[in-house]
Design brief:
The complex is a heterodimer of chains A (417) and B (290). Chain A is an alpha/beta fold. Chain A folds into 2 domains: 26-138 and 296-348, Periplasmic binding protein-like II (D-Maltodextrin-Binding Protein, domain 2, 3-Layer(aba) Sandwich), CATH 3.40.190.10; 139-294 and 352-416, Periplasmic binding protein-like II (D-Maltodextrin-Binding Protein, domain 2, 3-Layer(aba) Sandwich), CATH 3.40.190. Helices cover 48% and strands 15% of the residues of chain A. Chain A is globular and about 70 Å long. In chain A, 47% of the residues are buried. The model of chain A is unreliable at 1-25 (pLDDT under 50). Chain B has a single domain (55-287), classed as MetI-like fold. Chain B is 74% helix and 3% strand. Chain B has a two-stranded antiparallel sheet. In chain B, helix 8 packs antiparallel against helix 9 (190-201). The longest helix of chain B has 34 residues, at 59-92. Chain B is globular. Chain B starts with a helix and ends with a helix. The model of chain B has no long low-confidence stretch (mean pLDDT 90). Classes of the chains: A alpha/beta (417), B mainly alpha (290). The A-B interface holds A 1, 3-4, 7, 65-66, 69, 72-73, 75-76, 94, 97-98, 101, 240, 242-243, 246-248, 251-252, 257, 381-382, 385, 389-393, 395-396, 398, 414-415, 417 and B 2, 5-6, 9, 38-41, 54, 58, 117-118, 121-124, 140, 143, 229-233, 235, 237-240, 254-257.
């Protein structure tokens, strides 16, 4: 009899311990906000808490990949997601497919906020009548270039004169040829992939048709034209074959391994970091070929599994409101996705001394105004990397542009089967 | 009656944990593998063996299997040989060195991968810099298939050689001295003694290390995954030149969210693991006779 009692007393102890843990009552509502990279939210959290006593905003920052994989896993498992989660636009299509895991924000009246955003930004976060996310920043596109390398190549270093040289990507490729002839020890751009991405983002349809989401990557002239042009630049070894955000890429920025790179607004901070204080004045910003474009940008979503979805929505609404977006641009160059903000005179007048006083407010606002919506299919993320790797094979000299293209199309068909 | 229950109660925690983290996932994976299953959205209908059929017809899967085997062989054979050598040296005089030999193994694998990634950089890597000094052109460590396999294998070797050497050393110490002395009296040289006394004496340990590295080799993930400087998609380079089976599994399951296909791959990986282990054991049994 005595022997049998041991486990029961153990169980009793366990219960007391567990009970003690859950007994600490939550008087305050705690809202976790998961972001990746640099959102600049920390100071805003403190202010929100001041305005809303009783709410604790807790930030959780991880890197891009872990953040999104973690969100997917948490949604699949039904627990573990933060109350408010930032989602980058390339992951948005995947979430559309499982929209029942997210709160439909129109429940709380998100539809009334619609006019804050530029229309395409709002549309991307909406499926039918369901509002999945509220837009944060966007990635209005410009072209960054190194003045010292341009000077060595005998090309203009003035930003307007340079922009006049490349009204189109075809013209940009011709400038690349001129550059490579004169400066053999540096490359013209960082990778074929960035040129390709920028061109794709200027087209309204990429791999999937807007009307019925059918795969058109193999027949859409916008895709094949971009692939051929970017591939040719890669095949001629005019790219430094550096993958964006990697350590070698950072060093390449610092050491002047390449002369130009497409740079959305959020990338300016990366260039400053990689270039260091000594790099001030080496990089400048001008208009991208094709005039406008968008690369990246995020949304705040509210997972349905959260305990305080309404409070979470209120926090997301406040964080994406015009006043906060404006502050984020002023402190961290995070480009607002709201015309009312980026056309604000103080935003338009913004220049950056690191980039030779480039009028970044004006450049990015002009680029953002001309952006056309860009349809991404539900399975876009499954196909996109395939074509990126194909360009990598061209740059590595393993395949010709045609071979790489054919293999990519085959792979895409297999994946979509 | 009570007497009969207590022992079972005492071992119950193990079986509970094993059931939760061993048996349940295994069965659950089998269940998922016969369905079309989106990782987030959930099951989308029964698929029978369609996932397995697709897998066996998937050239990317065979590419991954080939890479896994290649990296495994490149890493394991030199590793076990080196470990034997180090152990033999340590057995003769090595007080104090044992700890040093183990250091690479206690360094977290992520740190190892980061350091090797820097050493084996194409443009600014230390190794290419040194190669340049002796007139060898820069090696594209990530882009070239064989260079990439070698790079990943080096990482594995660096991490595990010391550990294996210590296991061998412990086993060598347990070989009776008398056998060595008898062999020496019979006029056997050092090499002959090593072959005829030491090796058969540590046979069980040899078997264990071969099995352990076969299992580790088939599941190889972290080293090649982090060797890819361009991101964590798990593709293993632009031509999938160093994508292992575990990486392909990750790409399919967590990149494409195709849980059904990934689950099928898990089971095939499991069988592959068993087959390779059996083959490795057979080989060692044949090479080192009692």
């Amino acid at each position: 009899m005595r022997r049998g009692r041991v486990p029961w007393s153990l169980l009793a102890v366990l219960l007391v311990v567990l009970g003690g843990c859950s007994a600490t009552a939550h008087e305050r509502v705690r809202i976790t906000v998961a972001t990746f990279g640099e959102f600049g939210y920390e100071p805003l959290f403190a202010e929100y808490e001041r305005l809303n006593p009783g709410v604790d905003l807790v930030g959780r920052v991880t890197d891009f990949d872990s953040h999104h994989k973690g969100l997917i896993t948490a949604l699949a498992a039904g627990r573990g997601a933060a109350d408010v989660v930032a989602v980058e636009e390339q992951y948005l299509p995947a979430l559309r497919r499982s929209r029942d895991k997210l709160v439909d924000l129109s429940r709380f009246g998100a539809r009334d906020l619609r006019d804050q955003w530029t229309p395409w930004k709002w549309e991307q976060g909406v499926v039918g009548d369901t509002v999945l996310g509220l837009g944060t920043d966007m990635g209005g596109l410009a072209m960054c270039y190194r003045t010292d390398l341009m000077a060595r190549a005998g090309l203009p270093i003035d930003r307007d004169a340079l922009a006049a040289l490349w009204p189109t990507w075809q013209a940009y490729a011709e400038v690349a040829d001129r550059f490579s002839q004169r400066v053999p020890d540096a490359r013209f751009t960082d990778s074929a992939g960035t040129v390709y991405t920028a061109m794709l983002n200027q087209a309204e349809e990429n791999y999937f048709r807007t009307a019925d989401d059918a795969f058109i990557g193999d027949s859409n002239p916008a895709v094949s034209r971009a692939f051929t042009l970017a591939g040719a630049i890669g095949a001629k070894h005019q790219t430094a074959t550096l993958t964006t955000f990697t350590q070698p890429w950072n060093i390449g920025i610092n050491q002047g391994a390449f002369a130009t790179m497409t740079c959305p607004a959020w990338m300016l901070a990366q260039i400053k970091q990689a270039g260091g204080p000594g790099g001030a004045g080496t990089w400048d910003v001008t208009t991208v070929p094709g005039g406008a474009g968008n690369w990246g940008g995020s949304y705040l979503v509210v997972p349905a599994q959260g305990e305080h979805v309404e409070a979470a929505y209120q926090a997301a609404k406040w964080l994406t409101a015009p006043a906060q977006q404006k502050r984020l641009f002023e402190t961290d160059n995070i480009l607002p996705s709201q015309p009312g903000v980026y056309r604000d005179p103080s935003v338009l007048a913004r220049t950056d001394p690191y980039f030779r006083d480039a009028p970044i407010g004006r450049i990015y606002a002009a680029s953002s105004d001309a952006v056309r919506p860009n349809h991404r299919g539900v399975r876009d993320a499954d196909v996109r990397p395939i074509f990126g790797r194909a360009l990598g094979r061209v740059e590595d000299g393993k395949q010709t542009v045609d071979q790489a293209w054919r293999q990519a199309v085959d792979e895409a068909h297999t994946v979509l089967r | 009656m009570r007497r009969a229950v207590t022992p079972y109660l005492l071992v119950a925690p193990f079986f509970l944990v094993f059931g939760m983290f061993g048996v349940f996932p295994l069965l659950r994976t089998a269940w998922v593998s016969v369905h079309r299953w989106h990782l987030v959205a959930g099951p989308e209908g029964f698929a029978g063996l369609a996932n397995f059929r697709d897998l066996l017809l998937d050239p990317l899967f065979y590419n991954a299997v080939g890479n896994t085997l290649s990296i495994f062989l490149l890493a394991t054979i030199p590793q076990l040989g080196l470990a034997l050598g180090i152990a033999a040296l340590l057995a003769r005089r090595g007080a104090g060195w044992q700890v040093l030999v183990l250091v690479p193994n206690v360094v977290p694998v992520v740190a190892v991968a980061l350091v090797f990634g820097q050493l084996l950089g194409r443009d600014y890597g230390m190794v290419n810099f040194l190669l340049g000094r002796v007139g060898v052109g820069p090696v594209a460590w990530q882009a070239d298939t064989w260079a990439a396999h070698l790079g990943v294998a080096t990482m594995v070797m660096w991490r595990w050689t010391g550990y294996t050497a210590l296991l061998y050393l412990a086993a060598m110490r347990a070989v009776p001295r008398e056998l060595h002395e008898a062999a020496e009296l019979d006029g056997a040289g050092r090499w002959q003694r090593f072959r005829t006394v030491t090796l058969p004496g540590i046979r069980p340990t040899l078997l264990f290390t071969v099995v352990a590295s076969a299992i580790g080799g088939v599941q190889m993930f972290t080293e090649p995954q982090l060797f890819d400087g361009s991101g964590l998609a798990g593709a293993g380079g632009s031509d999938r030149q160093f994508q292992t089976v575990a990486m392909y599994l990750y790409e399919v399951g967590f990149g494409r969210f195709d849980a059904g296909y990934a689950a099928a791959m898990t089971w095939v990986l499991f069988l592959l693991c068993a087959a390779l282990t059996a083959a490795a054991v057979g080989l060692v049994r044949r090479v080192v006779r009692r």
